[in-house]
Design goal:
Elements (H helix, E strand, L loop, with lengths): L6 H6 L20 H10 L2 H5 L2 H15 L3 E3 L6 H5 L4 E4 L3 E4 L5 H5 L6 H18 L5 E7 L1 H10 L7 H9 L1 H25 L3 E6 L7 H22 L5 E5 L6 H7 L4 E3 L6 H7 L5 E6 L1 H6 L1 H15 L4 E5 L9 H13 L4
Parallel strand pairs: 1-4, 4-5, 5-6, 6-7, 7-8, 8-9
Antiparallel strand pairs: 2-3
Bound molecules: coproporphyrinogen III.
């Protein structure tokens, strides 16, 4: 029997749990008043990411309120380019801004020399959390996948069209591959360092996987992910890896079989009944409530949760959102969701 295994780890090992374990992407954040208070005290968002005491505190806040089965390290995917020396700022209301990397010359200005030194406070946050978390709660580390991190590095921030990164990748795939190879290397290293510090599971966020045509999806999403998974597994074969290729659509199946991940995160658009047949027979799945259902609450939320549970709770499954929680989410709706999940399978 496996009663001693933490629920998230059981699901990731392929077990079906009585009531599915859950956590929520971006579960720490601005929808919580206690987050906003610490965020103000920290100064800038990056100051918060690099302050182990405060980052530990905001990681624990949603666990205290709602009792999720996993805590995700509080940090951001863009600390990786920052630790490579790319200037980064978060502008209020505008999101991240970086000095774009668009050529071999720009790439030459990045350096791995201070990578782990800059990220040491993140590792310290993980060490603190692995001591302070309740014993049944799983600690998840994370990184952005190379394609998504590169999109911010090349575009210089968020983008709707991906014109600069696609332009580079399509016109000069070999030159662009130098950036992607660097990201594969440092991301594998970064995840291993989080595991050494106490992360029990790691997730790769590929939020912009869904913008590529099929050949480029294979080259810039599947292949880099496969290489990172292989490197992390070489050093830490027992640590489960969750891949989240948001927007992968029909390519979810190929991503799931070709990358070597232990579980896939489903975005909001994936039909859960399809995922049960096509994916869950092979690996654990995670997802995929529309974050706006959590803003809506009430009957809409209840119906959407039931549909997902009916389709997926009969196999290895972690309940989550299909994308990050939004700032306008009423905290009491998250409490309502937690109650519904804990009551399952009662009718
Ligand atoms: O899940 C968690 O609670 C852990 C923390 C976490 C954050 N970002 C905190 C954050 C995680 C896992 C991320 C991942 C992340 N960051 C992704 C991948 C997931 C996704 O949502 O697609 C991406 C693309 C980023 C890059 C990023 N960071 C953007 C685009 C922004 C601005 C968004 C906004 O709402 O302003 C951030 C900032 C950020 N990262 C915030 C938080 C809590 C808000 C910053 C603040 O408090 O002012």
């Amino acid at each position: 029997m496996t009663e001693t295994r933490k629920p998230i780890l059981a699901a990731l090992a392929g077990e079906t749990c009585q009531s599915p374990p859950f956590w929520l992407m971006r579960q720490a954040g601005r929808y919580l008043p206690e987050y906003r208070e610490v965020r103000t005290r920290a100064g800038s968002f990056l100051d918060l990411c690099y302050n182990p005491e405060l980052a530990e505190e905001v990681t624990l806040q949603p666990i205290r309120r709602y009792g999720m089965d996993a805590a995700i390290l509080f940090s951001d995917i863009l600390v990786v380019p920052h630790a490579l020396g790319q200037p980064l700022d978060y502008l209020e209301g505008e999101g991240p801004k970086l000095d774009p990397v668009r050529s071999a010359a720009d790439l030459g200005r990045l350096s791995r020399d201070r990578f782990h030194t800059v990220l040491e406070p993140v590792y310290e946050t993980v060490r603190r959390l692995s001591r302070s978390l309740p014993p049944e709660v799983t600690l998840i580390g994370f990184a952005g996948a190379p394609w998504t991190v590169a999109s911010y590095m090349v575009e210089g921030g968020g983008t709707k069209e991906f014109a600069a990164i696609k332009g580079w990748a399509y016109r000069d795939p070999q030159g662009f591959a130098a950036l992607m190879d660097l990201l594969v290397d440092v991301t594998a290293d970064y995840l291993c360092a989080q595991i050494d510090a106490g992360a029990e599971v790691v997730q790769l966020f590929d939020s912009w996987a869904g913008v590529l045509p099929v050949a480029e999806f294979r080259r810039w999403v599947i292949e880099p992910t496969r290489r990172i998974v292989a490197r992390v597994k070489e050093r830490h074969p027992a640590v489960p890896i969750i891949g989240f290729p948001r927007g992968a659509g029909l390519l979810y199946e190929e991503y799931a079989s070709a990358t070597g991940v232990d579980a896939v995160g489903l975005d909001t658009t994936v039909p859960p009944q399809w995922a049960a047949r096509a994916l869950q027979s092979r690996l654990a799945v995670q997802g995929n409530l529309d974050p706006i259902m959590l803003v809506a609450g009430g009957e809409a939320l209840g119906g959407a949760v039931t549909e997902i549970l009916e389709a997926l709770a009969g196999g290895p499954f972690i309940f989550n959102l299909g994308h990050g929680i939004t700032q306008k989410t009423p905290p009491e709706h998250v409490a309502e969701l937690a109650r519904r999940l804990r009551a399952w399978p009662q009718r």
